[in-house]
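Fold this: NAD(P)-binding protein
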Amino acid sequence: MFTGVAFITGATSGIGQATAQSFARKGAKRIVLVDLGDLSVTVSLLRGVETLSVQADVSDEAQVKAAMAAAVNKWGRVDYAAMAQLNNDAPGLVETPMTAGQVITEDSAPDVLPMARPGMPEELADVITFMCCEEAASYVNSVMWSVDGGPMVH
Ligand SMILES: NC(=O)c1ccc[n+]([C@@H]2O[C@H](COP(=O)([O-])OP(=O)(O)OC[C@H]3O[C@@H](n4cnc5c(N)ncnc54)[C@H](O)[C@@H]3O)[C@@H](O)[C@H]2O)c1
């Protein structure tokens, strides 16, 4: 499904790491992993995938450009960009290291969150890869997807 080069930020942990795994499950063979932190665990999860690990601060435009340049230098292209702050999905509470200790259960939040549980990183990742997929989302443009367990239902 993903024949090109994927560029994923925040790839050490949580949603970014799950997104890298989702791209790999859906056939991506070349993935650029970007994070401030150590990317070796994510690399080890991506069997059969050629990776380029770049330690960069994505809040610094020059570092993002340098990471993109490194990808283009290695593979000549970047086809899909899944950037933690830029992709158009709107997560609710997703169970990752960032939200450790925040609890949603059927008892604590039935009135505000119909699904009464946090989202899993994979549930965000699959929406992100859907949005990057030319076959599945070929006529989708300028959309904000809410992936939040449904609080707007109330
Ligand atoms: N988890 C949630 O419930 C939730 C909800 C709303 C929005 N978000 C957003 O989704 C994104 C991912 O969240 P997560 O839950 O997977 O968090 P996480 O803490 O599990 O992972 C975030 C990753 O981003 C990296 N990172 C942080 N700042 C960086 C920077 N400046 N440059 C490069 N890498 C950087 C961290 O090292 C870490 O590996 C974040 O932007 C977060 O604000 C998360």
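The pocket of nicotinamide-adenine-dinucleotide is lined by residues 9-10, 12-16, 35-37, 57-59, 84-85, 91, 93-94, 96-99 (CB under 6 Å). The radius of gyration is 16 Å.
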